[in-house]
């Protein structure tokens, strides 16, 4: 008698990851380095029992990269390998992805994209505190001023899925978490009727 691999038989492919499988939403927090993505993600995950997916850590721990760019002190992400690694973490929802970019994530994986923005002088100080080199600080600051991440989010996901929040102070972080939480709570009832 032939054995059947049930795990692989019933595992949906990347192309079938849609909101019809998910019991909870997937949220992507993005923004220039230093805008508070990890802080927001940790608070949201604790509040709603969601799964925090810090993409930078996942890239490093699972070798989802093609090496390191020594000048920028950053990994060169292998997007295909990363998406394959993330697939099982996002399929049923309840994930908060934390990454500076968003264009390579499949649209049907993400229910809400939150772009965090920070005043460029505050951002500069945060990046100095992280000990970034001057060129990296300047490049990230320029990206923030020109709203590169916001433009990428709207182009990739459409403005109806993008929420833009300012993240200059801890009070703003708390307000942002409340606003995202309100959206998460509304997503549940809005989408539960679709699954019946």
UniProtKB/TrEMBL annotation:
Its main location: cytoplasm. Interacts with small ribosomal subunit protein uS11. Not a structural component of 43S pre-ribosomes, but transiently interacts with them by binding to uS11. It catalyses: AMP + ATP = 2 ADP; ATP + H2O = ADP + phosphate + H(+). Keywords: ATP-binding, Cytoplasm, Kinase, Nucleotide-binding, Nucleus, Ribosome biogenesis, rRNA processing, Transferase. The lineage of its organism: Eukaryota, Fungi, Dikarya, Ascomycota, Taphrinomycotina. One of its GO terms (molecular function) is AMP kinase activity. Residues 54-77 are annotated as: NMPbind. It comes from Pneumocystis wakefieldiae. This is Adenylate kinase isoenzyme 6 homolog. Belongs to the adenylate kinase family. AK6 subfamily. GO terms for cellular component: cytoplasm; nucleus. It comes from the Eukaryota. It is found in: Cytoplasm; Nucleus. InterPro entries: Adenyl_kinase_AK6, P-loop_NTPase. GO terms for biological process: ribosomal small subunit biogenesis; rRNA processing. Its EC number is 2.7.4.3. PANTHER family: ADENYLATE KINASE ISOENZYME 6, POS9-ACTIVATING FACTOR FAP7-RELATED. Residues 129-139 are annotated as: LID. ATP binds at residues 34, 36-39, 130. Broad-specificity nucleoside monophosphate (NMP) kinase that catalyzes the reversible transfer of the terminal phosphate group between nucleoside triphosphates and monophosphates. Has also ATPase activity. Involved in the late cytoplasmic maturation steps of the 40S ribosomal particles, specifically 18S rRNA maturation. While NMP activity is not required for ribosome maturation, ATPase activity is. Associates transiently with small ribosomal subunit protein uS11. ATP hydrolysis breaks the interaction with uS11.
């Amino acid at each position: 008698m032939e054995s059947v691999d049930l795990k692989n038989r019933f595992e949906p492919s990347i192309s079938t990851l849609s909101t019809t499988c998910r019991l909870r939403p997937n949220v992507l927090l993005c923004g220039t380095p230093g805008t508070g993505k990890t802080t927001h993600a940790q608070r949201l995950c604790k509040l709603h029992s969601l799964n925090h997916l810090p993409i930078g850590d996942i890239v490093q721990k699972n070798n989802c990269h093609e090496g390191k760019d020594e000048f920028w002190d950053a990994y060169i992400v292998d997007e295909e390998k990363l998406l394959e690694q993330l697939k099982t973490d996002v399929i049923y929802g309840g994930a908060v992805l934390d990454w500076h970019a968003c264009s390579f994530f499949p649209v049907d994986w993400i229910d809400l994209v939150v772009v965090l923005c920070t005043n460029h002088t505050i951002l500069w100080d945060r990046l100095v505190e992280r000990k970034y080199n001057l060129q990296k600080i300047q490049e990230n600051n320029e990206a923030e001023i020109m709203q590169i991440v916001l433009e990428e989010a709207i182009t990739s996901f459409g403005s109806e899925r993008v929420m833009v929040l300012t993240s200059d102070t801890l009070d703003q972080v708390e307000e942002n978490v409340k606003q995202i939480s309100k959206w998460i709570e509304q997503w549940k009832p809005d989408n539960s009727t679709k699954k019946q």
